[in-house]
Design brief:
alpha+beta, 2 domains, 5-stranded antiparallel β-sheet, 4-stranded antiparallel β-sheet, elongated
């Protein structure tokens, strides 16, 4: 049996994973923003901006296809390595990146010519992309292995909305050249699954703008609760940094004003006191890494009973504390971002105020 951090792996249904990825797409992409100079020779700025929106809409269609009948196309491995180990997802992202980055976009933007296809399992990925609107002229999709004749490149098109190809071109360049890699061998083409248009913008986006996008699938009162916490603690001097992996998002809050060096988002994540997270395992959560609870017992004693029970359980390695399979307990006190948490806002602020006071000096 496959295991993950000491516990058995239960593979999530592909429909749940597709919905999770769909939630990570930007809900609103601005109509006007300046682009980095790297994209000057790709197409006009207006065409690239429209292409990115079109590509985001294509991803919505792709995820909807997976939500409704992804089980017909995404065969799970016999021994999954994670809860989201569906090879087709990664193969499709690899193929899209290869098309966008290495292909030649026609002058009218209506097609991309490919003289070579490098990703493995390209034929299977092409078959799935045809279900989502792509056309591969010159490719034998009945073959087991894709072969391209030297004088007959494959012509890739998206007839329903050709500007998708311009967006794919720009986002592939951003993914391969501009996305901050999590580690040296990070070869996941995340931006072809996320459509993070901010990578192509000339100006940096602030974290509040990113946080609003992150929260958009949640009820309005839960969004307001999270935005209130963000404002309260950034006003106190804490720094917020967003860190993303293929399926996880972290908005981490740390106090770094006394740091003697420039802190990266990853540094801020490692020093986080609390955070908002979105993961496949737990969904949307508020996570508090309170290490000083023994020093403000009087504050805890006045908190909502649910919070007192959470704190009483403690946090740390699930196996060592409670002889349970790993649930990420070492990350902190975890609470779902749902309607129940909104009613405890004042108590959560009192708790966080007491904890944060040990860092702000």
């Amino acid at each position: 049996m496959s295991t993950e951090h000491g516990g058995p792996i239960t593979l999530k249904p592909i429909g749940e994973i597709a919905q999770h990825l769909k939630n990570m797409l930007p809900p609103d992409i601005p109509g006007h923003y300046a682009l980095k100079s790297r994209f000057a020779d790709v197409a006009s700025e207006e065409s690239i901006r429209r292409g990115v929106v079109a590509y985001r809409d294509f991803l919505r269609l792709l995820y909807d296809r997976l939500i409704t009948d992804g089980h017909l196309y995404c065969a799970p491995p016999k021994k999954p390595k994670s809860t989201h180990d569906y090879p087709l997802l990664y193969d499709v992202a690899d193929l899209l990146a290869d098309i966008g980055y290495n292909g030649i976009l026609s002058d009218d933007g209506g097609s991309i010519l490919m003289s070579n296809i490098t990703p493995s399992n390209a034929v299977k990925s092409m078959r799935f992309l045809t279900l989502c609107g792509f056309v591969f002229n010159g490719a034998d999709l009945d073959a087991k292995v894709l072969k391209i004749a030297d004088d007959k490149p494959i012509e890739v098109s998206y007839p329903a909305n050709p500007i998708v190809l311009t967006g794919l071109k720009a986002l592939s360049i951003a993914d391969i050249e501009l996305r901050v890699k999590r580690y040296v061998s990070d070869k996941n083409h995340d931006n072809l699954l996320w459509c993070d248009y901010r990578l192509i913008k000339a100006e940096d986006s602030d974290e509040l703008d990113r946080l609003r996008d992150f929260l958009h699938p949640l009820p309005a009162d839960v969004q307001a609760f999270a935005l209130d916490l963000h404002q309260r603690y950034t006003d106190m001097g804490m720094t917020c940094a967003a860190v993303k992996s293929t399926f996880d998002v972290h908005f981490s809050y740390s106090y770094i004003k006394n740091s003697r060096r420039v802190m990266t988002p990853k540094d801020i994540y490692y020093l986080r006191v609390w955070e908002f997270t979105l993961t496949m395992r737990h969904g949307y959560c508020l996570v508090i890494r309170a290490k000083n609870t023994s020093k403000y017992a009087d504050v805890i004693d006045k908190l909502h009973l649910s919070l007192k029970d959470i704190i009483a359980r403690g946090y740390g390695c699930d196996r060592k504390l409670r002889n349970e399979p790993c649930q990420g307990g070492c990350q902190g006190f975890r609470m779902p971002l749902d309607n129940a948490i909104v009613g405890m806002q004042r108590d959560i602020e009192r708790w966080l105020d007491a904890e944060v006071a040990f860092y702000i000096k």
